[in-house]
Amino acid sequence: MKNFVRAFAPANISLLFKVMPHDDPAKMGSLGCGFTVNEGVTVEVSIANKPAIIFNGKPIELPTVTTVANKLTRTVLVIHIQSHLPLGSGFGISGASALATAYAANQLLSLNRSNLELAKLAHTAEVENKTGLGDVINQYYGGFFVKFVTSSQFVAEPIPISDIPVYCISYGKLLTSSILNNPGAIAKINHAADTGLFQIKQLLSKSTISLSQIFTIAKQFANDSSLLTSSRIMNTMKGIETRGGHTTMIMLGEGIVADIPFDGATKLTISTAKASVLA
Predict the structure, then answer these.
(1) Considering the entire predicted model, what is its pTM?
(2) Are 270 and 35 in contact (CB under 8 A)?
(3) Which of 138, 98, 105, 143 is nearest to 121 (CA)?
(4) Do 252 and 182 share a domain, yes or no?
(5) At residue 84, what are phi and psi to the nearest 5 degrees?
(6) Are 59 and 133 in a shared domain?
């Protein structure tokens, strides 16, 4: 048995979403649209005497990852997570960490679970801890997807956009749980999402679909759902659009993604790389 196993899972940027509630966390999920990128998390899992989760060198409480580890095994694990992207800022780092942890622990302990089983476990842990609803399915498949079926079923329709640079900035955290615990907010989000998903379905029926078209739909969703309220984000968006770019809010985070560079932005690339165990 190896002393440790490492796994990778990509970050995911969600552009719009609709909450699909269910009493069973394994069946709760979301509809929506988003894509994975070239950056993400690398997780190293090893057996230890005392459990710990270390994020970029610092001990951290990460309940979603703890839930995954506890559901997989009673073996005490130390989980080291490395990422260039921040937690709690709309990049799906919680889901990526949970998924990569599941893959690495499964390999380390020879648990013989399938990747789909592990992905569903990570998805359920996200729902239970209110850290996400639809990131893990994208991270499992890798790429640009729209979901017209609840994410818990792991059915997604690919959108033929990849290997294109995007530019992101995060101004801080936006707690997913604060939204998921607010029925009034969810009702408004879901109504706006219905419109956005209908528009994306129409685009998919045509011969071509562009990132700028999807960003335009997503920004309308951000406005109509009342999730876009930050004057700082709106001012940055205005500057991008003045220069001919397209931009929208990252869901759910205090940040934006655009198709042209802007001051302070991090360059990422839309990628089809999926979660995997590293050699």
Answers:
(1) 0.95
(2) yes
(3) 98
(4) yes
(5) -85, -10
(6) yes
CA atoms within 13 A on the CB side of 129: 20
DSSP state at residue 251: B
Number of domains in the chain: 2
Question: Does residue 154 share a domain with residue 234?
Answer: no
**On the CB side of 151, how many CA atoms lie within 13 Å of its CA?**
35
Shared-domain flag, residues 45 and 119: yes
**How many secondary structure helices (H) and strands (E) does the chain include?**
8, 12
C-alpha–C-alpha distance, residues 174 and 119, integer Å: 24
> Per residue in 210-222, pLDDT tens?
999 999 999 999 9
Phi (first) and psi of residue 180, to 5 degrees: -70, -15
Q: Which residues are CB-contacts of 246 (< 8 A; sequence separation ≥ 6)?
A: 211, 212, 215, 216, 219, 240, 258, 259, 260
30-63 per-position pLDDT tens digit: 999 999 999 999 999 999 999 999 999 999 999 9
pLDDT attached to residue 88: 86
Which of 137, 147, 79 has its CA nearest to residue 109? Answer: 79
